Amino acid sequence: MNFKKVGLSVAAFAIAIAGAFATNSRSASAGDGYTNLQQVPSQGSPCVYRQTCAGGFNTCRVTISGKLLQLLQLEPNGTCSSTVLSQP
Predict the structure, then answer these.
(1) What b-and-e string marks burial along 36-75, b requiring 16 or more CB atoms within 10 Å of the CB?
(2) What mean pLDDT comes out for the span 24-31?
(3) Does the predicted TM-score (pTM) go above 0.85?
(4) In terms of DSSP bridges, do strands 80-84 and 72-74 run parallel, antiparallel, or are they unpaired?
(5) Which of 1, 10, 13, 54 is least surrounded by Cβ atoms within 10 Å, i.e. has the fewest?
(6) What are the CA-CA distances from residue 30 to residues 6, 11, 25, 64, 84 (Å)?
């Protein structure tokens, strides 16, 4: 009986660790892409959602009004970060 409890605890711990790695991997390679007023002065609001980035080379760029723009992260306070989402 005690062996079953230990086995169940180990399995639950392993699943939690695997979930943490999966979440971290997703957030490192994907993100929501935004543009700010400096990039697109005519957009009307400080930070506008443009697309979801899939990660990888040149994936987080968008062409608006003929200009190729690098998409930015969204900060917790709702402003656009200066961190560019496209990867080198």
Answers:
(1) beebbeeeeeebbebeebebeeebbbbeeeeeebebbbbe
(2) 49
(3) no
(4) antiparallel
(5) 1
(6) 36, 28, 9, 21, 12
